[in-house]
Amino acid sequence: MRISPVSEGELVRQARLGDPDAFGALVERHAPMVRRLTRAVLRHAADADDAAQDAFVSAWRSLGRFDPAQAFAPWLARIALNAARDMGRRRRVRETEAVPATISTPDPGPEEDADRLLLRQRLDAALAALPERQRLAVVLFDVEGYRHAEIAELLDVPEGTVRSEVFHGRRRLRAELTPSGGDT
Amino acid sequence: MTGPAFRGERDAELGAVLRTHLEGADPAGFAARVRARIAATPLGQREESLWDVLATWARPGIAAGLLFATLLGAVVAARAARNLNTDNPVLAEATERDVLVGVVLGSAR
């Protein structure tokens, strides 16, 4: 569902004045996108949620610097990507200090059947096989619906690079998801 | 899994699979946790960077600086002009005579 720019603008205006409830409403609207992006960067559910929380707190603190004439979602997406990368750096430091690696996917619930579990594992492997920029280009374009130019701005790369990354990322993802060459 | 050739449009099938895969669990719980952290960050703790502070000073500072420089320049110029005319009358007279000769010769050519 597309959010009305007027109502979103009003929420941003109220949040900028320090209204935590208005910001809470923005959190509920944008949390799915922020969590998907942090997950795409970190590929670890718990770390991704920590990074997403950090992103929202950072956005709340920085709202005074947000230009209300601009769209809120891309601004928030950029903060989310930065928070996730920061969390990734901290995780790498942590992992060099503590040896055992964590499992990237939480335990499936009893309702998750074998096929879904298999698909989840293959998707984890497929996403892990992509370089971060390629992964993000595909997620931002095919999942979040951003335009190439917007993604280029978010990732600080030329638009042509985004098009190329989306193309190659998709191809590699599909190849990883169909190892035998058949359709799934 | 097959997908459309890349022509700049979205791959809805791949997008839907990825969306489901990346979706976070317990959205209500997540929002509640963020709200709690926001509530624990009162307005007084909202960060204002050094650059923000400097930016608030910059515009009035530059305007005041320009005004001061203009006034100072006007004062110095007025004083220099007065000194030229009063403290060194010979030079002032010579300058005036040179200018006058220049004008006459120039108009004669």
**Most extensive interface:** A-B, 48 and 35 residues
Strand content of chain A: under 5%
**Relative strand content of chain B:** under 5%
Shape of chain B: elongated
Strand-and-helix sequence of chain A, N→C?
A: HHHHHHHH
Number of helical runs of chain B? 4
Span of the ends, CA to CA of chain A? 28 Å
Class by SSE composition of chain A: mainly alpha
Largest sheet of chain B: none
Helical residue percent of chain A? over 70%
The beta-strand count of chain A equals 0
Oligomerization state of this entry?
heterodimer
Whole-number radius of gyration of chain B?
37 Å
**Largest sheet report of chain A:** none
Low-pLDDT residue intervals, each spanning 5 or more residues of chain B: none
Per DSSP E runs of 2 or more residues, the count of β-strands of chain B stands at: 0
Q: Let me know the average pLDDT of chain A.
A: 86
Unreliable stretches of chain A: 99-104
Summarize the model shown.
The complex is a heterodimer of chains A (184) and B (109). Chain A has 184 residues and is mainly α.
Describe it:
The complex is a heterodimer of chains A (184) and B (109). With 184 residues, chain A is an all-alpha fold. Chain A is built from eight helices and no strands. In chain A, helix 5 runs antiparallel to helix 8. The longest helix of chain A is centred in the middle third of the chain and has 26 residues. In chain A, 34% of the residues are buried. About 3% of the residues of chain A have low confidence. Chain B is elongated. Chain B has 109 residues and is mainly α. Chain B is built from four helices and no strands. The mean pLDDT of chain B is 74. At the A-B interface, helix 2, helix 3, helix 5, helix 6 and helix 8 of A face helix 1 and helix 2 of B.
